Amino acid sequence: MYQRRAVFAGCSGRIRLGLSAIKRSIPATIGAFADWRSGRKDRVDWVWDDEPAEIKTAHGPLVTLPYTVEPNDIPMMVAQHHHADVFLKRAIDQFDRLYAESAARAKILCFAIHPYISGVPHRIKYLEAFLDYAARHAGVAFWHGAHILDWYRGAKR
């Protein structure tokens, strides 16, 4: 893990945030992610909530960022063979619920997309339709994991 971190930092100029499949993790892995040597203080694939949360470890807190299996184009379109309009409907339905709940506190809608699936010519218009739909709502921001982590840490202070 430490060697991969060094290679990524050498190529990109920054430390890579989390992104490791939780279903392949063991309890010891959770602490290793928070280990100061790894440079990773977050985890972006914990399928459990629509808000960041912290897990206490022997190496300090580990921030978990939302991840989803719905909407996610691999299970939906590759494994379950749904048409892209089903992805659009689920994404809008999930957005509408979380947007309503966000009146009381911030919510995060995570959706997992891959250019070789959702970016192909016969599917891209459905992704674009969802992004256009969400962008029309006041207070919506499109952030990647580093932005969410910075926001969460700032709000905790």
Helix content: 40-55%
Q: Hey, roughly how much beta strand do the residues contain?
A: 5-15%
**Main beta sheet, described?**
3 strands, mixed
Radius of gyration: 17 Å
| Strand and helix order | HHEEEHHHH
Helix run count: 6
Summarize it.
The protein is 43% helix and 8% strand. With 157 residues, the chain is mostly helical. The radius of gyration is 17 Å and the shape is globular.
Describe the structure.
The structure is a single chain. The chain is mainly alpha-helical and 157 residues long. It has two domains: 1-65, no CATH class; 68-157, no CATH class. 43% of the residues lie in helices and 8% in strands. It is built from six helices and three strands. The protein has helices spanning 2-12, 27-34, 73-79, 84-101, 124-135, 145-156, and strands at residues 42-46, 53-55, 62-66. Strands 1-3-2 form a three-stranded mixed sheet. A hairpin with a 6-residue loop joins strand 2 (53-55) and strand 3 (62-66). The radius of gyration is 17 Å and the shape is globular.
